[in-house]
Amino acid sequence: MSNKKYKLSFRLSDGTAQEGYIEIPQGERGPQGERGEAFTYGDFTADQLESLRGPQGLPGATGPAGPQGERGEAGPQGSPGATGPAGAAGPQGPQGVAGAVGPAGPKGDKGDKGDKGDAGISGVYILSDGETLDDVPADVSVVLDPNGDSDMTVEEIVATTLEVIENGTY
Fold first, then answer.
1. Greater confidence, 137 or 28?
2. What is the pLDDT of residues 28-40, one digit of tens each?
């Protein structure tokens, strides 16, 4: 084993400083002692316990909600409050569904005779497969050819024809 060397510094009564070294031999390690009892709070003073306390930690996460408590008894009825002012009118609601058709009313009186109307066109003729303009009767004013070279559909041809008839440009 090696000796441990310690430095000593001291001041004599006459005020002079002295320094020196002392060597202390280190002995062999002794046998393991018996296990002692665990510390208890009673083994420490209040100051010692306070010195062991660290800084305040961060708050922990919120735990799960506890079970619903029992419903308490109802409190007494309060007095009615003052009537508040009327609010603004709300927006008009959506159109309701049409009601059922009612029963037919009684037959009305016969009306006066009307004026004679203008003469109309002779008619509209739609060519069938294989027909030509030679097959159209002489009194027909409008001829529709669904098989012609037009890019229009039959519906578009009919709509155009009705527009021509309404405008009187035939």
1. 28
2. 888 999 998 888 8
Average pLDDT rounded to a whole number, residues 90-104: 90
Average pLDDT for residues 65-79, to the nearest whole number?
Answer: 91
- Domain total for the chain? 1
Half-sphere exposure of 117 (CA within 13 A, CB side): 4
What range defines the domain where residue 159 resides?
Answer: 124-167
Which helix (H) or strand (E) covers residue 50, if one does? Answer: helix 46-52
Residue 19 lies in a domain: no
136 is a domain residue: yes
Look at residue 13 and tell me if it is in a domain: no
The DSSP code sequence of 91-138 is: PPPPPPPPPPPPPP----PPPPPPPPPPP----EEEPPTT--GGGS-T
Residues 6+ apart with CB under 8 A from 9: 17, 18, 19
| Polymer length of the chain | 170
41 found inside a domain = no
